[in-house]
Design a protein that fits this description.
alpha/beta; Dihydrofolate Reductase, subunit A; eight-stranded mixed sheet; 6 helices
Length: 202
């Protein structure tokens, strides 16, 4: 399977609390729900179709619990095409603390995470998708496990919140595979990792 990630971010790189105001209030975050209503019908269709082509899903614990409590348990959300895709596909969670997953067809990955994910990637099939899950996405990139990364960039600056990429970390280069902008100014950018960046020499 190809491992792909999809992340909604602001212009200043924040990914925290994109859905509802109450989703994620870590570290005094007060500006949640910034992606609500962003994007036009084409962008919403793109997101839905992305979920629908997943062979399986991989989550960090926090995103898993958020999704399990919404897409996995609220009837109206379960009936949505995204909810159908999530509920019908196998789900994997990278967690050392989750002991009793409440969402059906869930496997908790413990121990050697890199080996477990490499084993999943070696299976035939379509995409192993990661949605949200910032800490997991960063770890996957650092360990060269990401095949493709989609960023949905909402034209807003929050000035606070957890960013997809921290102030310090590994350096990564990417090739742009696809780019589009919708009628509301939301951009969709699809990248493939391309090693390390090149720097100017003295």
């Amino acid at each position: 399977m190809k491992l792909t990630t999809m992340t909604q971010v602001t212009l200043d790189g924040v990914m925290q609390g994109n859905g509802a105001a109450s989703d994620d209030r870590r570290n005094g975050f007060e500006r949640g729900g910034w992606a609500r209503g962003a994007g036009d019908d084409e962008t919403r269709t793109f997101i839905t179709q992305t979920y629908q082509r997943a062979e399986a899903f991989l989550f960090g614990r926090r995103t898993y619990e958020l999704f399990a409590g919404s897409w996995g348990s609220i009837d109206q959300m379960r009936a949505h095409p995204i909810g159908v895709a999530l509920n019908e596909a196998p789900k994997y969670v990278a967690s050392t603390t989750l002991t009793a997953p409440r969402w059906e067809d869930t496997t908790v990955l413990r121990g050697d995470l890199a080996a477990a994910i490499s084993e999943l990637k070696a299976k035939p099939g379509g995409e192993l998708q990661v949605h949200g899950s910032g800490a997991l996405t960063r770890w996957l990139l650092e360990n060269d496990l990401v095949d493709e990364m989609t960023l949905i960039v909402v034209p807003v600056v929050l000035g606070q919140g957890v960013r997809l990429f921290p102030e310090t970390g590994p350096d990564l280069a990417f090739d742009l595979v696809e780019s589009r902008v919708d009628s509301k100014g939301v951009t969709i950018q699809v990248y493939r990792p391309a090693g390390r960046p090149r720097y100017a020499t003295a």
